[in-house]
Here is the input.
Amino acid sequence: MSAELDQRCIDTMRFLAVDAVQKADSGHPGMPLGAMPMAYVLWDRFLKHNPRNPGWTDRDRFVLSAGHGSMLLYALLYMTGYDLSLDDIKQFRQWESRTPGHPERGHTPGVEVTTGPLGQGLANAVGLAIAEAQLSARYNRPGHAIVDHHTWVIASDGDLMEGVASEAAALAGHLKLGKLNCLYDDNSVTLAAGTDITFTEDRAKRFEAYGWHVVHVDDGNDLDAIDTALQAARDEIHRPSLVVVRTHIGFGSPEQDSFKAHGSPLGEEDVRKTKQTLGWPLEPTFLVPEDALAHMRKAVERGRAQEENWNTRFAGYARANQPLAGEFERSLHGALPEGWDTDIPVFPADAKGMATREASGKIMNAIAPKLPSLTGGSADLDPSTKTALKDLGDFNPPMQAGEDTQGSDGGGWSHAGRNIHFGVREHAMGAIANGMAAHAGCIPYTATFLIFSDYMRPPMRLAALSRLHVIHVFTHDSIALGEDGPTHQPIEQLASLRAVPNLTVIRPADANETAVAWKVAIETSDAPVTLVLTRQAVPTLDRSLMASADGLRKGAYVLDDGGADPAVILIASGSEVHLIVEAAQHLRETGLAIRCVSMPSWELFDAQPQEYRDSVLPPAIRARLAVEAGATQGWSRYVGGSGDVIGIDHFGASAPGDVNMHNFGFTFDEVCRRAQAVLSSATAQARR
Ligand SMILES: Cc1ncc(C[n+]2csc(CCOP(=O)(O)OP(=O)(O)O)c2C)c(N)n1
Here is the structure.
């Protein structure tokens, strides 16, 4: 392999990026020009992958955290033989092209995670590495390393500036994720400035303090130095590695080292000058020299051989380790083991009832022993969210201290543990869970208070966008949480989560609805699901008198009609359902025909056929009242123009939960009064 050919491969990809950005008249040429040599060395000499099977289980995972440099990744994918053509490259950023502005998982073969919002990719990579560490600790057997791959990331200044990267990197260092390697494109320039005016801490020392192994490459064009550094990173398996590579944004262009090279096409004139400077032919554009393509396409044969080798090794493992191998394969494919839900309890009717968080904890612990892929944890709130998986191990580096360590959930401390202690790091928790889900082999869950979903919005949105199976457990779901006060009391969170496309939000009414909600959350394999649970006890409804909690699957269902054609429909979710049930009993005694509808999930309901929706909310019945201890925004689509909503459109208060609920109008009396009022106004409207 000659140095010239190496250089030709690098320059081919540099100018594919430059030409594609120029043709699209949009995009980011600076990063690919500067970072291509490190990307090339990584992909040519280190990355274990099979371009013809991007889903191969034991491939290394590559994340371009600096997603704005997407053309760098597309050039690598095309050159190494993924299902991406030169025409696709020419269609960069165009309608329905396979080369969108930022890499999108599920859209372009070889893209592991959707990146663009800076910092997320690096945190996703921590999740990918956690999944690898956990699966290898649980499934490898002596002589059978069937899970044995690295996670590689290219991250930029912007990535390292974002708080989520700090949260995730700190956790990665603590967890000793030795097979995680981050190449830092240290080019001293961001979108709008040089880093000297914003970003002057010593990044290497920062990562060292997190417990990372840090290596330096002083010249980002020195392939030998990059090679040596990547070897050092790969060989260090007890700590994650940061390879700090000093590069030059817009390398070779007139605007090299200027922020102006970051995010706009170079322009015809500068494209010409850059090609001249780097000794590249001016024409044709999108030039791919045959020898460069042939060299990089060797990745196809290499990858095929690597996968074949793995297949042989896996067959040996499977022969020696059934049923473990079967379990591993099921988990990878997201198949649920038979009987995974058989131990979920049925909760007896109980007027005092239990908090839905409490029920959720029992349900999770009934599911987890039978569903080995379920793994996750909370952002330091296990005792409140009830999400610990008892005796299923704590995910931590193996240590001597053992079972008596504070906060342990039992079952041993190792990378095999299924309880992940995220620490107080909600943002990273969300992004790490996305990485774990993207890895395959696990169904990750996260947990915190509903109010702190605000700290997790960016990864929740990305999970929805890239259809990742992540389960979010949010407890303390309303002003009824009480004394912690308005800082902790969610108001607008439900409405805002419901606004996220592809995200299913479920707020179950009682313990039995919580059980069905968990089933839906586990079975929804192609999108995230959010469970919204109470801190306070709610009655466990008597299902012998009311419809089965299975109705939750349809998002909303008629709990009971009191045996008559309804005049008024009362709708509620979660902890307010028992209020409408009690109010209905009273109103019926006064001769009013009331229908009670439990509506735990708008998204599930909206997905039902019109016929079903009309059967629950008959268009002719216009006297409707919805009750939910959250912002009223959006409820009008279910209660209609003649309906009313009891909600809360202002902040809460620090007081006992029942006092809050009473003082803010979530009372039996208020529901009765407003139900009568909607009936009167609907009747009056009908007469008009
Ligand atoms: C969370 C987030 N904030 C802002 C942006 C907009 N943006 C795109 S790239 C960038 C900074 C680029 O600097 P750097 O990360 O160093 O990349 P480079 O200039 O080296 O290409 C910004 C602010 C973004 N993509 N994500």
Q: What stands out?
A: The mean pLDDT is 96.
